């Protein structure tokens, strides 16, 4: 048996753990939490439409889409998430129904149903809604080919919805391919957000994605631009993660957010509870990082608007 005298732990001279990396990390996290509490963000009423894209799977697109959406909603923004991936992971994380018989984004794209008939409230926040995806969307890639204005179906439907029911942010979660679904996202959005995983081959395929964005700009949507890059799944202990982050910052100094999302178990387990990490464990390192990213995104536009006015 071990006996620990209570006084050992209570001793003011006991500096156990005070100067370990973990203790420093926790102290840092609590400072960042406090800083976040003091921040107030104003929203201009202008709708910003983001598409979260990267043709690689498993890089954190969906995780970023839902967590940023929830963090922005928490800041007071009205947010609509459009789940454009047949896997429906964003719908799951936002706790909205998306079984095969649910009216979904598929019906908007293929059956001309208005957004207002498919949008659901997310239990995450009263400011957050989601246009769910269902398994039917897997066939939409083919079915869209024969549709009139096949590249603009999402844009048209979204514009109609926003006229009656404006929001501050629309965040579109894309599938990991550059097919017609992603093209619909690119014509509906003006800002592209690319999550980059701080691991091997992070930049592989990026030039192809940038090329696609340029093509869309030239032929379908002149407003589209890469506005934001978010480094995700960062593991500060590895030299590799630091190198990837440095390399991305060198290439894209304007676009990369200061906030970096750490690799965190809390982030990856939240969806299995039908939640984002913001509601699942809002004070965890992953949630704090997504909140910081949301503040930066909101403030960047604020300062851009101020510069324009000046
Ligand atoms: N910051 C993170 N820490 C730990 N796991 C993460 C993190 N971000 C994403 N993941 C996990 O990585 C996997 C892929 O993420 P996901 O967002 O689904 O990628 P994508 O939408 O690009 O395919 C998921 O299992 C997710 O839970
Ligand atoms: Mg996904």
From TrEMBL:
InterPro entries linked: AAA_dom, DNA_Partitioning_ATPase, P-loop_NTPase
Chain ranges of the AAA domain: 48-225
Gene3D superfamilies: P-loop containing nucleotide triphosphate hydrolases
Stored CDD domains: ParAB_family
Organism domain of life: Bacteria
Entry protein name: AAA family ATPase
Organism of provenance: Microbacterium commune
């Amino acid at each position: 048996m071990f006996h620990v005298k209570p006084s050992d732990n209570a001793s003011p001279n006991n500096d156990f753990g005070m100067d370990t990396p973990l203790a420093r990390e926790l102290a840092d996290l609590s400072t960042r939490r406090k800083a976040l509490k003091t921040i107030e963000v104003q929203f201009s009423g202008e709708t910003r439409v983001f598409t979260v894209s990267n043709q690689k799977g498993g890089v954190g697109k969906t995780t970023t889409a839902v967590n940023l959406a929830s963090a922005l909603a928490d800041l007071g923004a009205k947010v609509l998430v459009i789940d454009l991936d047949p896997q429906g992971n964003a719908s799951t994380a936002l706790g909205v129904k998306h079984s095969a018989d649910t009216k979904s984004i598929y019906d908007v794209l293929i059956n001309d149903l208005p957004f207002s008939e498919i949008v659901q409230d997310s239990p995450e926040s009263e400011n957050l809604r989601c246009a769910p995806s269902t398994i039917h969307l897997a066939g939409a890639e083919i079915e869209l080919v024969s549709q009139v204005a096949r590249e603009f179906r999402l844009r048209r439907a979204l514009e109609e919805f926003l006229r009656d029911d404006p929001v501050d942010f629309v965040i579109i979660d894309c599938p990991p391919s550059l097919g017609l679904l992603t093209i619909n996202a690119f014509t509906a959005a003006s800002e592209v957000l690319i999550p980059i995983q701080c691991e091997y081959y992070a930049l592989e395929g990026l030039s192809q994605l940038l090329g696609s964005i340029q093509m869309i700009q030239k032929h379908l949507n002149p407003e589209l631009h890469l506005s934001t890059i978010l480094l995700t799944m960062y593991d500060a202990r590895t030299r590799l993660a630091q190198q990837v982050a440095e390399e991305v910052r060198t290439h894209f100094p304007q676009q990369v957010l200061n906030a970096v999302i750490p690799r965190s178990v809390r982030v990856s387990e939240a969806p299995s509870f039908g939640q984002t990490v913001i509601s699942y464990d809002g004070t965890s390192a992953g949630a704090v990082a997504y909140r910081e990213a949301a503040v930066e995104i909101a403030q960047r536009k604020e300062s851009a608007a101020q510069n324009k006015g000046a």
